[in-house]
Amino acid sequence: MGRRALDMDRLVLDLTLTDNVDEKKKIAKKITDLAYKSGIYASSINQFYMARGKGEVQPTFTVPAINLRTLTYDLAKAIFRVASKNNAGAFIFEIAKSEMAYTSQPAVEYTAVCLAAALKEGWSGPVFVQGDHFQVSAKNYKADPTKEIDSIKALIVHAIEAGFYNIDIDSSTLVDLSKTSIKKQQELNYEVCALLTNFIRKMQPRGIEVSVGGEIGEVGHQNSTPEDLKAFMEGYNERLRKGRTGISKISVQTGTSHGGVVLPDGTIAKVKLDFDTLKTLSRMAREEYGLAGAVQHGASTLPAEAFGKFPEVGTAEVHLATEFQNMVYESKHFPAELKARIYDWLKTTQGAERKADQTEEQFIYSTRKKALGQFKKDIMGLPLETRDAIAKEVEAKFEFLFEKLNVKNTKDSVSKIVTLKRVITRKSGQGTKVEISGEGAD
Q1: Which of 68, 191, 312, 417 is deepest in the core (most CB within 10 A)?
Q2: Contact 88, 399 (CB under 8 A)
C-alpha cells in the first residue's frame, strides 16, 4: 500500500495543479481505474433513498452532503477516516455549479480526487458524488429560456461523464410569489425541474438511476409550506414522462441562508431554524410521495446543538460547506503570509462586491471563498505536514457531525441496497460525442 499511497499523492497533485484539460482527464481516468480495481465505485444513492421512502430504511439518520471547496483531497481523506472508524456509508461529497467556478474544481477533477482519497484510506464500496445547486438563473431564464436551459443541460452532461450520479436541480429561483395561487407560483419551478429530470434520465449510464433532487423554496427566502410541496409534486409528476423515475428528495427553506448571516464584527448571527416545518415536510415527502424526505441547505454554520435535531425530525439530507472553509482559513496552521496575500487580493479585485454598510470583516468573510481558485496552487502547494495538520482539525468536526447526524453503522445497509456499477466512457469516431455505458460489478 505504501508505494501506491505515495503514487496517489503525486497523482492528485498532478491532477489538481495542471491546467491542461486533456491531461486532467487522463489522470482522472487512471485514478478511476485504480479505484475500480480496489472495489471503489462512484455511485448513485437513489436506491438507498427510495428504500427510505418506502419505509424499508428507517428515517433515523440524516445524510451529510459535504461541499469541499479547498484542500479537497486532504479533507476527503479525513472524511473516509471518520467513516471507516464509525462504519458509516451514508454520506455524500458534493460541489455546486458556482463552486466549481470560483474554486477551479471541474467535475472530472472533483470526482477523481474523492476516489483518490478513498483509495489512500483503504475504503471500499460506493462513493457518492453530487452536483449541488445546478441552479437556473432567473435573470438569464427571463432573457432567453432556451439558452439558460441548454447551459444547465451541458453542465449535466459534463457532470454525469465525470461520475456525478447524484444531481440537485435548483429551479426554485423561478418561483413567482406574485402569483395568486400556489400552483401558479411553483409552475415554472416544477416544469423546469421535470424537464431536466427527463434529460438526466436520457443521459444517465445504463444500469444507473441518477439520484435527482428538487427544490421548492430558495434558500434565504420565505419558509416552505406543505401547500408548496403539494403544488410542486402534483405539477412535477404531471410533467414527468410516464415510466420515468422522479426525484428522490426535496430541498426546502426553513430559515437558513448560505454561509450564514455575518455580523459587523465578522461573527455569525444565530439562526432560528423551523424544525417543525422540516419535520412536517419530511414526513409528507416520505408518506405521500415516496421520497427520502426533506433536505436542509445552508446548515454548516448553525450552532452545535442544532445538528442532533435533524435526525430527530426525519431530515433526509443536510448540506454543509462554509464552516469547513472557515476552519481552513482560521486554522493556526494556515500560513499568515498566504492569508494576508489572499485578503489583499480580495480588497484589490472584489471591491465591487462590497456593500455600502459592510464592515471589512463582513466583506472578507463573504468574499474569501472566491479566492480559493485563484490561490488553489498556493494552498495545494503547502507542505504535506501543514495540510495534514489543518485536515486533522477539520476531521474533529466531521467526527462530531457523523455522530450527531446518526450516520454511524450505515455502511452495511448502504452496501446491501446500492448496486455497484462500473461505467465505461467511449469516445465516438468524431471525437466529440461521448457514449456512457454501465457494466455490472465483478
Answers
A1: 68
A2: no
Instruction: Give pLDDT, residue 256.
Output: 54
Q: Find where cell 483531497 sits.
A: 73
Percent of the chain that is helix, strand, coil (3-state, to 5):
50, 15, 35
The helix or strand, by DSSP H or E, that contains position 213, with its residue range, turns out to be strand 211-215
Q: What are phi and psi of 123, to 5 degrees?
A: -75, 160
For 57-112, the pLDDT digits (tens) are 999 999 999 999 999 999 999 999 999 999 999 999 999 999 999 999 999 999 99
> In 54-137, which ranges are continuous DSSP H helix?
72-86, 97-102, 107-120
What are φ and ψ of residue 288, in 5° steps?
Answer: -95, -25
pLDDT tens-digit series, residues 122-159: 999 999 999 999 999 999 999 999 999 999 999 999 99
Question: What are the extents of the domains in the chain?
Answer: 2-437
CA distance 49 to 384: 37
Type of residue numbered 347: K
Q: 262: how many CB neighbours lie within 10 A of its CB?
A: 20
Model-level pTM? 0.92
Question: Nearest CA to 173 among 147, 134, 229?
Answer: 134
Counting every residue, how long is the chain? 442
What is the C-alpha radius of gyration for the chain, rounded to an integer number of angstroms? 21
- Which residue type occupies 400? F
Residue 400 cell numbers, joined:
462530531
Q: Is 128 helix (H, G, I), strand (E, B) or coil?
A: strand
Cα-based distances in Å from 156 to 1, 109, 380, 435: 35, 15, 28, 14
Banded model confidence at residue 440, pLDDT cuts 50, 70, 90? very low
Locate 19 and state its grid cell.
491546467
Q: How far is CA 260 from CA 76, 180, 245, 267, 366, in A?
A: 23, 31, 34, 9, 9
Q: Give, in words, the CATH class of 2-437.
A: alpha beta
- In one-letter notation, the amino acid at residue 70 is T
SS3 96: strand
Instruction: Give the residue among 422, 439, 423, 417 at the shortest CA–CA distance from 47.
Output: 417
Measured between alpha carbons, how far is 36 from 367 in angstroms, rounded to an integer?
38
Pair 185, 174: CB distance under 8 Å: no
Cell of 397: 468536526
Cβ neighbours of residue 402 closer than 8 Å, sequence gap 6 or more: 64, 82, 83, 86, 88, 91, 408
Confidence of residue 365 (pLDDT cuts 50, 70, 90): very high
